[in-house]
Design brief:
By secondary structure, the protein is mainly α. It folds into two domains: 1-121, no CATH class; 126-200, no CATH class. Helix content is 68%, strand content 0%. The longest helix is centred in the middle third of the chain and has 26 residues, at 81-106. It is globular and about 50 Å long. 33% of the residues are buried.
Length: 200
Amino acid sequence: MSAPAGIAGAYARARAEIDAAHAADPSRTADGRAAELVYSECMEAWVARLVPDAGELLRLAARCQHLERWTSPRASYPEGKVAYLTWRRALYVQQAERARGILIAAGVAEAEAAEVATWVSKTGLKSNAGTQALEDAACLVFLENEIAGFAATHAHYTEEKFVDILRKTWRKMSAGAQAEALRLELPPAIAALVGTALGG
């Protein structure tokens, strides 16, 4: 069932503002598009695949996964695991609040905007269906589109560290997302690491 005209208009305005924010990302893909805009499209596509009846609100949340992430680069925090986790948590909060603000300004109900903020902030992972859908999509985008580049830029990592990263990624996914991950055509070296991470 489609949303009433007024609500649909608010969703459309929110989508346009989210995409405009992504378009300001200085990082570009090979074809010259804003990297975070491309990422948001991949996120939404995976959410739609994982949740066939996903409503516009969940789709909008998917597009907010990395909302203006480029404004707070990892390098702005010190090295080390504690600093990394602090940076990541701060990003979740920043992105969630930015998403909530955009949706409210576009005319989306405050309760719905708050729900999107909950999903984007990764609150209730494993227990909140919307949060889990976004996490599943993020993990699948990483495996499908980013892991080869990640491996290339972290060539100094040991095989054990890569396997640990893959195991942690796997544990965050739902059974449905794990099944989708097993269908991905990964580079042979990456597929071998995934096999090791999953116990062969």
